[in-house]
Recover the amino acids of this structure.
């Protein structure tokens, strides 16, 4: 049985939806040793989120940003405004998306679908680097 946990810093990104699958996989080299298992990915922030989504067309990521920015506008009667006009909307958007994913691991790889990738949903204009806690559990036996 394998249990590994580590914290990985994702590089800073602007507001938008960004593929981070490679950074996640690179932060957990022990994936290669697991035949059957699970990788839990937990984002340690309240103004960004994680989702599994389209990994091929950047249009999908642009459309997601357009929808989220329209659905949760900055120009609203927010009372939490001390951290800037993009902060409270970012908290609402993060609540809609969620902070974590659990992904099956099969034969040393994330068992993602053909067009799936791990997407960081950065809801702040300048959110800075983001930390994820990766927890891998599984077996290396047949």
């Amino acid at each position: 049985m394998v249990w590994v946990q580590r914290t990985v810093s994702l590089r800073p990104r602007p507001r938008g939806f960004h593929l981070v699958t490679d950074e996640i996989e690179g932060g957990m080299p022990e994936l290669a040793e697991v035949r059957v298992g699970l990788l839990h990915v937990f984002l340690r922030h309240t103004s960004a989120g994680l989702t599994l989504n389209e990994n091929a067309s950047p249009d999908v990521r642009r459309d997601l940003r357009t929808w989220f920015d329209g659905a949760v506008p900055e120009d609203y009667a927010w009372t939490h405004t001390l951290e800037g006009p993009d902060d409270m909307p970012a908290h609402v958007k993060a609540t809609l998306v969620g902070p974590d994913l659990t992904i099956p691991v099969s034969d040393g790889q994330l068992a993602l679908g053909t067009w799936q990738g791990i997407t960081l949903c950065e809801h702040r204009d300048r959110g800075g680097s983001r930390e994820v806690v990766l927890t891998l559990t599984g077996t290396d036996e047949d």
Summary: The CA atoms of residues 50 and 113 lie 16 Å apart.
